[in-house]
Design a protein that fits this description.
The protein is α/β, with parallel strands linked by helices. The protein folds into 2 domains: about 190 residues, Rossmann fold; about 35 residues, no CATH class. Strands 3-2-1-4-5-10-9 form a 7-stranded mixed β-sheet, with helices on both faces. Strands 6-7-8 form a 3-stranded antiparallel β-sheet, with no helix packed on it. It is globular, with a radius of gyration of 17 Å. The chain binds S-adenosylmethionine (SAM). The site of S-adenosylmethionine has 20 residues, from strand 2.
């Protein structure tokens, strides 16, 4: 157990100790030279970002959200961990021009945030993330997959008017997910269109967190993970 997880032991009964497959996989990709990290969409208290910071005291993490309440929860957790000097929790919208210079970051981490965007916003956001990433440095992104909807994949469509992904179950009933859920091909297409080189794509079941305390959802969802880099 790393130090951050140990410090959370007092909150174990509330679920905050719960591990995350995709968070672990993203953190495992960090290299010793990755000192400036941009994390898009902080919400489950900032535990992942705290683990990044603890692994190297020289590391600086800018962690963003569009949710002021989530930002306040994360800021308070970060302060309690004594990591405010390393982790800057900010309200920033990845759909907008980011207030950071070109090539400001060594690693972009985005776990379960980019499927909140429409296709047009997703393309724009990924172009911005490429702009702020240094050459040859990595983007790690995890999005929810249409495979978690329990529908026939050929029935799935994105409805722009309601910003929902809609599919039909084998029994004929309709399922709606209020996000732009992805297939492996669709998220790879977005990442490549933004100018990244995709290194790997993986999809797997993961029981996601249901709240800031990292309480687990009742059952598994299906996620897609893309690792890519900005070519030099
Ligand atoms: C499910 S949570 C992400 C979980 C977190 N990354 C983790 O690993 O536990 C989704 C987050 O994305 C954020 N988000 C949604 N739209 C966003 C946007 N346009 N810009 C920045 N963050 C956004 C939400 O505010 C929320 O913090």
């Amino acid at each position: 157990m790393d130090a951050t997880r140990e410090r959370l032991a007092g909150r174990r009964e509330r679920g905050s100790e719960a591990p995350s497959i995709s968070e672990d996989r993203g953190l495992a990709l960090l290299c010793p030279g990755d000192l400036n990290i941009y994390s898009v969409g902080i919400s489950t208290a900032g535990v992942g970002e705290a683990r990044m910071a603890r692994a190297d005291p020289r590391r600086r993490v800018i962690a963003t959200t569009v949710d002021p309440h989530g930002g306040a929860v994360a800021r308070s957790f970060v302060a309690g961990e004594g990591l405010s000097g390393q982790i800057d929790v900010r309200i920033e919208d990845v759909r907008r021009t980011l207030p950071h210079p070109d090539e400001a970051f060594d690693f972009v981490y985005s776990r379960l945030a980019l499927h909140y965007l429409t296709p047009v916003d997703l393309d724009r956001a990924l172009r911005e993330l490429r702009r702020v990433l240094r050459d040859e440095r990595r983007l790690f992104c995890v999005v929810r997959s249409v495979a978690g909807m329990g529908v026939d994949s050929h029935t799935v469509r994105y409805d722009a008017a309601s910003h929902a992904t809609i599919g039909v179950r084998p029994d004929g009933s309709t399922v709606r997910a209020e996000r732009y859920l992805q297939t492996n091909a669709s998220i790879v297409g977005h990442v490549e269109r933004a100018g990244f080189v995709v290194e790997s794509v993986a999809d797997y079941d993961e029981v996601l967190f249901a709240d800031f305390e990292r309480r687990l959802a009742p059952g598994p969802d299906h996620v897609i993970e893309v690792v890519a880099h900005r070519p030099g």
